[in-house]
Amino acid sequence: MLEDLFSMVKVRFNANQTDDDKKKTDIPKGLLFKCPRCRSVTLSEEFNKKGKVCPNCNYHSRLSARERLDITVDKGSFREFDRTMISKNPIDFPDYEQKQIALREKTGLKDAVITGRAKIYGKDTVIIVMDSNFMMASMGSVVGEKITRAFEYATRRKLPVIAFTASGGARMQEGIVSLMQMAKTSGAVARHNEAGQLYIAVMTDPTTGGVTASFASLGDIIIAEPKVLIGFAGRRVIEGTIKQKLPDDFQSAEFMLENGFVDMIVDRSRMRRVLSHILRMHNYTGEVPKK
Amino acid sequence: MSELSASQRLDIIRHKGRPTVNDYIPMIFDRFMEMHGDRLFGDDGAIMGGIAYFKGTPVTVIAQVKGRDLAENQKCNFGMPHPEGYRKALRLAKQAEKFHRPVICLVDTAGAFCGVDAEKRGQGEAIAKNLMEFMTLKTPIISIVLGEGGSGGALALAVCDELAMLENALYSVISPRGFASILWKDAAREREACDLMKITAKDLTRLGVCDSIIAEAPGGAHNDPQATANNISEYISKALERKLKKGLDELINERYNKFRSVGDFEEPPLSDKSR
What we know:
The complex is a heterodimer. Chain A is α/β, with parallel strands linked by helices.
């Protein structure tokens, strides 16, 4: 009898779901943006025009690494490092190679980070941009190695580093090798730091786990985009531990600012200028942005 | 050394009688003097630190504390440190650097604590800072994984010149339980995860992470804590001898390269299509 009851509930549940799905399919996919923060719905056209920022709550949505570079560095100034580097399978994780091949095909990326050298208003900088479209920008061998090399290059050439961070954390499919990337990248930051060079971390959606617990938190200056997710532990893990629901703004950029782990929150539309001014204040020379 | 699977070793390290740092410290060190607090927020019961003699030489000991019963575990939060624990560890490591004392870290944690207060006080930042500062600390650091080495919470005490693991210890990117619940949405498949993840001392030696394996008493350390402690002592003696004769620059360069060299990737030549 109990089983019957459950199956009835299941049927009703599924019936509701299909109703919902039908409603959704009335609207062509990709025409609307539903904000994960305030849950308001906007026409994609308007959302895109605002630089993928929610017009209702100012949540700064995720960008691909290429999109980020386009709005950040001087046109034509970007020179990519290590662009053929791909991961192997250090712990023989089932289907890891296939998964990567499929993702490379789908995203046009080799792994979850693009690194290189570029100019911002004429000022030279090393730039690191993570891309959450590739395995939620988890940090495995390639992410760790490219970031480490980028910092080492900047240390040798006496250049600043700007890192746009986004990550779900360590890449579980690479096991302990992935954990070691946290130490490796932090070591490279340490050397860049000892060489007296500037490192600006810009935390974007989502910056979590092993990336928060390594190079992302080690910037001389830490900037965050509005309303993005920043934290160490997963929200669901914490909710499971304390057995209650957490408030919406928990682990947001604003929460991190309030608790003293972020220097400032900067809108995407001002980011390029703010970065340029910071570089200039640290005596990296180049043209002065207007305003 | 025995050929056990990772999940069989998991049973051994979870044995009720498994020695903890509270057992080992008096067996390995003399006159351990505990030092409390991070000077910023409070004192974390999950990380214990202090100064002691090791065979007549003063050393700084930083150890993750696990309890054996509920009362002990409440005091040490089941061995899961808060940010103030990592900050205490860093404070003591910096003190060791100032007075040229080697640092011995004893790792035994399922991971850094995941909670609201831990986030508010910057768990991520606390771990990150330790990774950076330990990497350039100007004194030898020896880390030994005694039981569980869980994730960033373990790594924060394991940026070192030499990493050793007890024979049955496990060291992983995430606890097997967490791995199963993320990958299969089923934490109950922990043992399966354990055997898939390549987390035994042997696996980690092959992957270039673990430098030495310390034998436990037959059947596990609980069968003879003193014999296991003697093996740990013997290892620390040799490791310190190796590290203390090195110049500081050499030491720190080698430490950097120890971690620098871990990674499994390839760089195929650039084809015309790739841009």
